[in-house]
């Protein structure tokens, strides 16, 4: 499971721009709170190699799946949420998970972990408010 600003990253596929080349169907991890996007760590090296070759060949569009055989089930098996879920439900789920962890941190008397979780909850609460305002 990957984490960003306190939220579990969401598994997805998307298109990334590498200089003049657009690479489609790249396995990604998205943060539902700060909107950070990372290439999935299991295919990061393959993405970089494909991007460099495509760019050097002057190719404008590339489909990642045509060149790299990535097992989606394995890539996203440890993601607690996926892109096809409602963003508000995702953030609510993330808040519930952080609250469960906060209770555990208090039980274990770990003030540093408690502080980190409280910062995460503050970020996710702001994101939840933004999403509720949009709806």
Decide which structural class fits the backbone.
alpha+beta
Distance between the termini: 29 Å
The overall pLDDT, averaged over residues, is 84
Rough outline: elongated
Give the low-confidence spans. none
- Assembly of the depicted chains: single chain
Structure, explained:
- The chain is an alpha+beta fold and 135 residues long.
- The chain folds into two domains: 10-75, no CATH class; 87-134.
- Helix content is 50%, strand content 19%.
- The protein has helices spanning 44-57, 64-67, 72-75, 87-107, 111-134; strands spanning 10-18, 21-30, 37-39, 61-63.
- Strands 1, 2, 3 and 4 form a four-stranded mixed β-sheet that branches.
- Helix 4 runs antiparallel to helix 5.
- The longest helix is centred in the last third of the chain and has 24 residues, at 111-134.
- It is elongated, with a radius of gyration of 18 Å.
- The two termini are 29 Å apart.
Question: How are the SSEs ordered, and which strands pair?
Answer:
Layout: E1 10-18, E2 21-30, E3 37-39, H1 44-57, E4 61-63, H2 64-67, H3 72-75, H4 87-107, H5 111-134
Helix pairs in contact: 4-5
């Amino acid at each position: 499971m990957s984490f960003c600003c306190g939220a579990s990253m969401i598994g997805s596929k998307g298109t990334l721009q590498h200089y003049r080349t657009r690479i489609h169907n790249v396995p990604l991890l998205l943060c539902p709170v700060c909107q950070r996007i990372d290439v999935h760590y299991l295919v990061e090296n393959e993405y970089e190699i494909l991007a460099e070759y495509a760019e050097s060949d002057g190719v404008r569009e590339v489909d990642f799946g045509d060149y790299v055989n990535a097992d989606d089930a394995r890539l996203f098996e440890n993601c607690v949420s996926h892109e096809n879920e409602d963003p508000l439900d995702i953030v609510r789920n993330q808040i519930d998970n952080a609250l469960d962890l906060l209770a555990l941190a208090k039980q274990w008397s770990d003030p540093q972990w408690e502080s980190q979780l409280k910062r995460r909850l503050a970020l996710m609460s702001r994101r939840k408010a933004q999403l509720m305002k949009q709806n």
